[in-house]
Amino acid sequence: MKNIRALLAAAAAAALTAACGANADEIPHAVPASATADAAANGIQTAVLSGGCFWGLQGVFEHVKGVKQVVAGYAGGSAATAQYETVSSGTTGHAETVQIKFDPKLVSYADLLRVYFSVATDPTELNRQGPDDGTQYRGDIWATTPDQARVAKAYIAQLQASHTFSKPIVTRVDAYKGFYPAEAYHQDFLLKNPDYPYIVINDLPKIENLKRMLPHLYVVTPVRLAQNSHS
Prior knowledge:
The chain has 8 helices and 8 strands; from the N terminus they run ααβαβαβαβββαββαα. It is of the alpha+beta class. It has a single domain (3-214), classed as Peptide methionine sulphoxide reductase MsrA (Peptide Methionine Sulfoxide Reductase, Chain A, 2-Layer Sandwich), CATH 3.30.1060.10. The strands form 2 sheets. A 6-stranded mixed β-sheet has the order 7-6-1-3-2-8, covered by helices on one side. It has a two-stranded antiparallel ribbon with strand order 4-5. It is globular, with a radius of gyration of 16 Å. The protein starts with a helix and ends in an 18-residue tail after the last helix.
């Protein structure tokens, strides 16, 4: 998602596709459900996940059952450096991130992680996802509660033990340090720009994979940020 992405023209999209084929994070994985259940919870809960460009992460999770709001933003660094151009330097500690508000009566935290590992990211890529390279694109699960840390670590151990992926999982699990919403023009970018070449090549396939592979978690009508008032 560096400057070249913002300048990518439609004419170049076909050439990029031919040269690169399907990006690693577009290739879906048959990921089993987590064997570890969430603790009982009431009310709207919050998940915070990093893994590549936040346009795609937001777009995928806006189509997940039980999700009430998805905000694109930054996590891992300080408030002072939570701006797109600064984060893009890869020196801030931030990663492009989404904050997900969800109803645990409709979708579990473990289910969100199943979407994350199966169609939203490639957990074997270190400090990158698909065409985007740098620590700001790392896979990181920011546990907002001790129970989320327990579920995430157990799920990664389960996937490692079952050799679900041919390479080791490098996704991190870190304690939540705060979340900073991204600039307005990044919010709902996929929904507003479905024909944008980067979206067509890298992100729309993830939503199709969600629909095809996890239909019980897919909803046709996405939850737009502008439609939601949860904080």
